[in-house]
Amino acid sequence: MRKLTRNTIIGGSVAVAALGLTALPAAAAPTSVTITAAGSSGSSVAISGINSGNVTAKDTSTGAAITCTKGTASGTSKLGTGLPLTAVASVTSVSLSSPANAGGWCSGPAGLTIQVTANTSTPWTLDVTGVTSGGVTAGKLNGVKASIVGSDNCHATVTANGVVNGPGGSVTGSYNNSTHALTTGGTGTTSNLKVATVDANCDPTLINAGDSVSLNGTFVITPALVVNAT
What we know:
By secondary structure, the chain is mainly beta. The protein is built from two helices and 18 strands. The strands form three sheets. The chain has an eight-stranded antiparallel barrel. A five-stranded antiparallel sheet has the order 8-9-12-13-16.
């Protein structure tokens, strides 16, 4: 993929944004969390997410990016009072596309398109990491990994710290009770996602194993969850 810029290769990580989180100032450490869902009872509820605005991923070594105009995700959220902070929700399916493009592939630079495949064979999980303030709760999405194929046949994968065949990585951000949105990206967020593999079709001036990946995207969650970490 001699024409596939780092912008495009990083598309594999875009999948993470499917249930991502937004940047927050440093917050006090919570001890437990209460989660409720409109019209739902019991100990858990099936959830789905639809993107609000584009979902993008960026190679922080080169500034290259990929954009997907449509995103959907599904999974399960725990419900209850005084819940542990880890694995409060899981993500079992993520899909990213740009329907206006051929085959629905996401957009890359120079007219290239990218097929993004999120690997959720091991469900991604969401941890709460900050006390709820102003209706916003900091968190971390774990287990994120993905693969991509460019329209010029460049193949690449993204994992935690770029480990070949390694586990999924993590990204930080927040959930907003008012908008019922999970967002990733922005000042103060962190990610340990890196490019793990590239093949011979990938231009080494554009993409290399070890490149770091940042993520930007917002997904509105249904049913509307209310999260209160204290």
